[in-house]
Amino acid sequence: MAYYLYIPKWLFLTGIIAMKYYCCVTAAAVARKGKVPAVIVFGDSSVDAGNNNQILTLLKSNFKPYGRDFSGSRPTGRFCNGRIPPDFISEGFGLKPAVPAYLDPMYDISDFATGVCFASAGTGYDNATSDVLNVIPLWKEVEYYKEYQNKLRAHLGDRKANRILRQALYLVSLGTNDFLENYYIFPRRQSQFTVEEYQDFLVGIARNFFTKLHSLGARKFSLTGVPPMGCLPLERATNIFGHNECEEKYNKVAAQFNAKLKNMVAKLNQELRGLRLVFTDSVYDIFYDMVKKPSSYGFEVVGVACCSTGTFEMSYLCSELNPFTCSDANKYLFWDAFHPTEKTNHIISSHLIPFLKQKFLN
Ligand SMILES: *[C@@H]1O[C@H](CO)[C@@H](O)[C@H](O)[C@H]1NC(C)=O
Fold it and tell me: Which family does it belong to (predicted)?
């Protein structure tokens, strides 16, 4: 008799333990899935928070008037009068209002645990692009990321660090410089590749980049393609025979390149287990819409930039001594000849944040 009594008792206990385990593991898994504990950034000047301040390059922006609308009127090395998209996105996910640059000595690993930027203005997918202005190549951004992983593990322990690295949202934005600073300026790549072949070459590098980061434990990515780069003030300024309208040839190359990136993204999501890589198509479209219908976004000027004459100046040429710089950057789509104003970055981010939340918080 005793024998029969014991069995249900044990089953009951086992059941409780199993149920408890099931309940809490599941609850934890749900909580984990719906969380973005950090924003980690790779790319070029569209997302660089100031890494170029610390390297030997001429491509810098850590002086006024850059940053004049940033918190504390502080030039940080962002190519903007204020904040850039990763800052707004980080804030949108309930994290810091500004993502710090990895090489900035003002910050350390405890700051970087909730967000870090490895981007470098002037870089591209192609090593030859980062060579032009001696900036950080994409492969080196990945090396810094590996170093960051080790520091984070030392700081928080393996378990906690690995969880952050897995659940973080990775923002990736580059490609414009490969075309405008490299392919269309220097003959080397043009003699090797047609522009279609060059696009494929870059997409191959992008593919390897995501595969590498996936193997290092990253999962959630947002990839931004290139903007309608023929509408950047610098390109308009050189479109003399086209009456300084957008250089549609470059816009076409941009759209074509974005389509190829999107295609690669769809394939990679099928191939790599657990990968959640989204391509943000809408950035090109919003950008183009702002250029074509500025007043519906509150802009008054889209053909030239706020800084100096607004046609070719950026970095050191966009200096505080220049008397032509506009007084209200909010009326302008572009801050310097190559980069959007904070207002433009804010509008783009406001479109992106609900999309990214829907993708990564569910
Ligand atoms: C870029 O340079 C790095 C370091 O030299 C190298 O490992 C990598 O293969 C290069 N990438 C391409 C696409 O050539």
Answer: Belongs to the 'GDSL' lipolytic enzyme family.
